[in-house]
Design brief:
- By secondary structure, this protein is an alpha/beta fold.
- The protein folds into two domains: 2-112 and 225-256, Rossmann fold; 114-222, Dihydrodipicolinate Reductase, domain 2.
- The chain has helices spanning 12-22, 68-78, 91-100, 114-130, 152-165, 226-239, 249-256; strands spanning 2-7, 28-34, 45-46, 58-61, 82-84, 105-108, 135-142, 174-176, 190-197, 203-210, 215-222, 245-247.
- The protein has a seven-stranded parallel β-sheet, sandwiched between helices.
- β4 (58-61), α2 (68-78) and β5 (82-84) form a beta-alpha-beta unit.
- α1 (12-22) packs across α6, α2 (68-78) runs parallel beside α3 and α4 (114-130) packs parallel to α5 (152-165).
- Bound molecules: nicotinamide-adenine-dinucleotide (NAD).
- Residues 7-8, 10-14, 34-37, 62-64, 66-67, 85-88, 109-112, 148, 152, 228 line the site of nicotinamide-adenine-dinucleotide.
Length: 257
């Protein structure tokens, strides 16, 4: 049984992880949680991770990016692997995660879904084949409570395409989030990233490769938060057996295949 310390336990994803763990036939159990709000739970919840008394096998974090330094500090002091599923980190927070991963195993993915990670590899393939002849635009849609924009997944897709482009484009890819401030023609180096917020949309991502005479659209739609929770549990099962390092969904998928 894998014992979980759940960061952000009262949030939407926190609840999804609790449900997924309780349906895992005892493979996972949440033994403690952290949150800055109050709520009811069947395990002890702390408003400061350093006060946690129980000894977890792994931390799963679905909270807020500002929680990251304290989580990494706790993980290093207690030698506990961490699955970071929160999005919207600053560069400085990413550096903290990277530095910590030299001493403990850290799993980070802006999207814990298997399907989205397949979309990612299809986008890399499409970019390799279509090269700079096709303009790339990404549209993401999420519920009206989402705090960060664009979504971490949209950035993950853009980063993957941008990396592939280094093989055939000299100019650096530029992410364009807003076109209303400047009147100028679109350049081939751009990737347009657009965010739609409304209702209770769980998460939709559409990547458009628009060429002279044809358009290819690759898309993924999530219909339940459960898939992210299940992915986080699989990631925690994987990370508890790893050496220190920074791991992502590719590592998990390669381990499954
Ligand atoms: N990687 C993925 O696949 C994936 C999927 C869904 C959501 N997310 C990300 O997970 C995060 C949480 O999403 P959500 O929809 O559950 O949000 P939410 O707002 O419903 O829940 C976040 C919870 O974290 C708590 N929190 C805030 N700051 C905290 C801190 N410093 N310490 C502990 N708890 C804190 C909040 O009180 C809240 O209960 C977001 O960053 C979201 O983008 C990632």
């Amino acid at each position: 049984m894998i014992k979980i310390l759940l960061s952000g336990c009262f949030g939407r994803m926190g609840k999804a992880v609790i449900d997924a763990a309780s349906e895992s036939d005892g493979r996972f159990t949440v033994i403690s949680g952290t949150d800055i709000t109050v709520g009811e739970s069947s395990f002890p919840v702390y408003n400061d991770i350093h006060l946690v008394n129980e000894k977890p096998d792994v931390i799963i974090d679905f909270s807020h990016h500002t929680a990251l330094p304290a989580i990494m500090d706790y993980a290093l002091n207690n030698n506990v692997p961490a699955v970071i599923a929160t999005t919207g980190h600053t560069e400085a927070e990413h550096r903290i995660m990277k530095d910590a991963s030299e001493k403990i195993p850290v799993f980070f993915s802006r999207n814990m879904s298997l399907g989205v990670n397949l979309l990612l590899s299809l986008c890399k393939k499409a970019s390799e084949v279509l090269k700079s002849d096709f303009d790339v635009e990404i549209i993401e849609k999420h519920h009206h409570n989402k705090l960060d924009a664009p979504s971490g997944t949209a950035l993950m897709l853009a980063d993957a395409i941008s990396d592939t482009r280094k093989n055939f484009m000299d100019a650096k890819t530029e992410y364009v989030y807003d076109r209303h401030t400047e009147r100028r023609k679109r350049s081939p180096e751009e990737i347009g990233i657009h965010s739609v917020r409304g209702g209770n949309i769980i998460g939709e991502h559409e990547v458009i490769f628009a060429g002279k005479d044809e358009v290819i659209t690759l898309s993924h739609s999530a219909s339940s938060r459960e898939l992210f929770a299940t992915g986080a549990l699989r990631a925690s099962e994987f990370i508890v057996t790893q050496k220190p390092g920074l791991y992502n969904m590719d590592d998990l998928l390669n381990n499954i295949i």
